[in-house]
Amino acid sequence: MVGLGPGNWEQMTLRAQQVLAEAEVVTGYKTYIELIRANLTRPDQKIIASGMTQEVDRCREVAHMAQLGQSVALVSSGDAGIYGMAGIMLEVMAQAQLTIPIEVVPGVSAAAAAAACLGAPLMHDFVTVSLSDLLTPWELIKKRVQLAAEGDFVLAIYNPKSKQRVNQIREVQQILLQYKSAHTPVGIVRNALREGQEVRLSSLAAFTEEPIDMLTTVIVGNSQTKVVGDCMVTPRGYKL
Ligand SMILES: C[S@@+](CC[C@H](N)C(=O)[O-])C[C@H]1O[C@@H](n2cnc3c(N)ncnc32)[C@H](O)[C@@H]1O
């Protein structure tokens, strides 16, 4: 299970590059396969790109190929174990009672990539929350957002808004405004560390007016987060 990082080849770990070079089969969601296809140059390597929402089928197929003795690299964007494929793969293997050796290769997560684009907003305690309610009830997501806000955590918001799911980000904004100042800095990063990167700084009161989609990670500061020049910084507390 290979975490590709944000997408550019040079942002990937050396181990990830090594595994991708050695695997007999490379498979994953087609958007992610396209990010790396140009770097997969071995003519004998099989590349299988599949559609979204076929995650369990994809893992079963990987298990089947591995059982036949093939070395298979299943790719996820960012880190394979953060809203990625690693957990599903391990569950599928356990269900099928397979004991094939598995390596989880970590990658630069979207939260880390977006934070790097913004400066240093994750210098203190933070939580990640995905607003995707496909597998998690919306009421539970809202409760987690509320508790994170109550605890004055910095929030890294994944899957913030899709074509079908447009209002949740505003609901989240309203929850956060009950606990955080309207002036709290918010960073909006689209396509972090890959082609098409867009970085915007806004405030809790205004950030939903910015373009936000499923290629975006939103970082909401804590009560100490400030804008320094054109960077977003959450102080750790050092006396300067
Ligand atoms: C299914 S999650 C995948 C998370 C990934 N496994 C990780 O560790 O970052 C997809 C969400 O990650 C975020 N994301 C992934 N890559 C990104 C990038 N390069 N720039 C900004 N956000 C990104 C977006 O919020 C997107 O909707």
Write up what this structure looks like.
The chain has about 240 residues and is of the alpha/beta class. The protein has two domains: about 1-95, Cobalt-precorrin-4 Transmethylase, domain 1, CATH 3.40.1010.10; about 110-235, Tetrapyrrole methylase, C-terminal domain (Methyltransferase, Cobalt-precorrin-4 Transmethylase, Domain 2, 2-Layer Sandwich). It is about 30% helix and about 20% strand. The protein has helices at about 15-20, 30-35, 55-65, 85-95, 110-120, 140-150, 170-175; strands spanning about 1-5, 25-30, 45-50, 70-75, 120, 125-130, 155-160, 185-190, 200-205, 215-220, 225-230, 230-235. Strand 11 and strand 12 (about 230-235) form a beta hairpin. Helix 3 crosses helix 4 (about 85-95) and helix 6 (about 140-150) packs parallel to helix 7 (about 170-175). The protein is globular and about 55 Å long. The model has no long low-confidence stretch (mean pLDDT about 95). The structure holds S-adenosylmethionine.
